[in-house]
């Protein structure tokens, strides 16, 4: 009985040590949410051997990094060979784990059969490596970017309207309405990226923008920048007699929806007409004048 209790205690201690000492990152990908999978263990980064590596395991890695869902699990050092130890192999996740460290793996098989880095596993996730956090809706919040060191916020001294245009565009959140500094959406917990971001506004992703490492600022989480995006990426008029009349529909996060007439007035209509190059608003009509929409309100 004592031997059984001792064995249970040792297993528990091993689990505690493992849980506290392992992290994950993606290396050498063309976007932050893709790359060679590396785990941090015993003070150093190491790769994952691709034996038994599959979409279930990849999904756990993506979820741990807040990188969306797994698009592809890669093999044979698709993202290049690592240089550190081979820290995990024969990974076997159930799919419910929140971290790769919680998945089963076989260290004995890894040492025996994973001899070099040409077997390094990788993953391509659906995420952008960019997010807005703690906002009132999906298209507003504190700007956070994913790098190999993890998720971090952006200093307000290095972020401007052109950078915000790229952020809103990349997240399919329309155009920037307002850039807010001084931790308007609360303080982040990770690092603060302080190098100068130099977007022109025409880039499709924030990672394409050039950066100036020589223009770093002394920033803390008191300087976290946030963005409010318009939330819609396109608009249209449906069922009218011409292209400048009809039921108003907005595209929000890739979905089209109608607008409730209770919150629609001539001022809003004038803005819409201007955006559609339709002159000035003549009148607003509600109560399904142009027919009921089939999409969400």
From TrEMBL:
Please give the Pfam families that the UniProt record associates with this protein.
Answer: SRCR
Location in the cell reads:
Membrane
SMART domains recorded: SR
Does the UniProt entry include the keyword Phosphoprotein? no
Please tell me the species this chain comes from: Carassius auratus
User: Which InterPro entries does the annotation name?
Assistant: SRCR (IPR001190), SRCR-like_dom_sf (IPR036772)
Its recorded name reads Deleted in malignant brain tumors 1 protein-like
The record's listing under Gene3D superfamilies reads:
SRCR-like domain
**Listed disulfide bonds for this chain?**
93-103, 155-219, 168-229, 199-209
For this UniProt record, the keywords arranged alphabetically read as follows: Disulfide bond, Glycoprotein, Membrane, Repeat, Signal, Transmembrane, Transmembrane helix
Which residues, if any, are the signal sequence? Answer: 1-19
**UniProt key word Transcription:** no
Q: Which residues form the SRCR domain?
A: 24-126, 130-230, 235-297
GO (cellular component) term, any one: membrane
PANTHER family referenced in this protein's UniProt entry, alphabetically: SCAVENGER RECEPTOR CYSTEINE-RICH TYPE 1 PROTEIN M160, SCAVENGER RECEPTOR DOMAIN-CONTAINING
Give the record's membrane topology: Single-pass membrane protein
Q: Which domain of life is it from?
A: Eukaryota
